[in-house]
Automatic annotation (TrEMBL):
This is Rxt3-domain-containing protein. Residues 1-22 are annotated as: Disordered. It comes from the Eukaryota. It comes from Patellaria atrata CBS 101060. It holds the Pfam family Rxt3. Residues 1-16 have a biased composition (Basic residues). InterPro entries: LCCL_sf, Rxt3.
Length: 247
């Protein structure tokens, strides 16, 4: 077991970080506006073009033995295929079309487990846009029932509202929303320049990752959510059946 293998030689290294875990406390509520507002202002003079859309399509990975335990529950990991490279397209928007399948409890739990998201409020362009929408407080995450600690914090806010607005133009003030059944989701992001570094925070039950420097792409911020009924994403035969019924 590799921990013991290194034990004798690197013993002093192990002790140092563990000695005082409270040394670098992360702020409970990150000062998110400090991050994004100057960044948005710095590019607002640029033309805002809409760059089209792409289907949200995670790639499935069979987990390596190292992460086997963590993901035994799911048996696979998914990584959202990154958005296209939009160099020099700051202040433009792009839409990711998310079929309702990925909005189920199980899928959202898997996204919260995978944590394929780098940054806080402003994320690297290879972050999973759905994970970003959960971390940024637009969509409610989902956790293992045993994860009581997270739930206590989250359950107080984020109830499903009876009248769900079709378009969310800003982060919902009443807390993250539970995706309505039988709806697909369009996540529109705002393309922003790369940050010098992307900070990790725990927000809304999901811990984002940090990226210290030299990110060679762009950033994005969640700009708008729209609930839609994309009939075609539910499979051909249901569409054909519906057409027959109409005739």
């Amino acid at each position: 077991h590799h921990h013991h293998h290194h034990h004798a030689t690197h013993h002093h290294h192990h002790a140092v970080p563990k000695a005082n875990p409270a040394l670098f406390p992360l702020p409970k509520k990150p000062l998110t506006t400090v991050i994004s507002e100057p960044l948005i202002k710095s590019v607002e003079h640029l033309p805002r073009n809409h760059l089209g859309s792409k289907l949200y399509s995670p790639q499935l990975d069979i987990p390596s033995s190292q992460s086997q335990m963590l993901h035994a529950k799911f048996g696979y990991m998914s990584y959202a295929t990154p958005i296209p490279k939009f160099d020099d397209k700051s202040n433009c928007t792009f839409t990711i079309r998310v079929p309702r399948y990925f909005l189920t409890r199980e899928q959202r739990e898997q996204i919260c487990t995978a944590r394929n998201v780098w940054g806080t409020e402003v994320y690297t362009d290879d972050s999973d846009p759905l994970a970003a929408a959960i971390h940024d407080g637009w969509i409610r995450g989902e956790w293992d029932e045993e994860d009581e600690k997270v739930l206590v914090d989250v359950e107080l806010q984020g109830s499903q509202e009876p009248e769900m607005p079709e378009i969310l133009g800003s982060r919902p003030t009443s807390g993250p929303v539970v995706p309505p059944l039988e709806m697909d989701l369009h996540i529109t992001i705002l393309i922003l320049p790369a940050l010098e570094q992307y900070g990790s925070t725990v927000q809304h039950g999901i811990k984002s990752r940090s990226w210290p420097s030299n990110h060679d792409g762009m950033s994005f911020k969640i700009h708008q959510l729209q609930w839609v009924d994309e009939g075609n994403s539910r499979g051909e035969e249901r569409g054909a059946e519906a057409r027959r019924k109409r005739l």
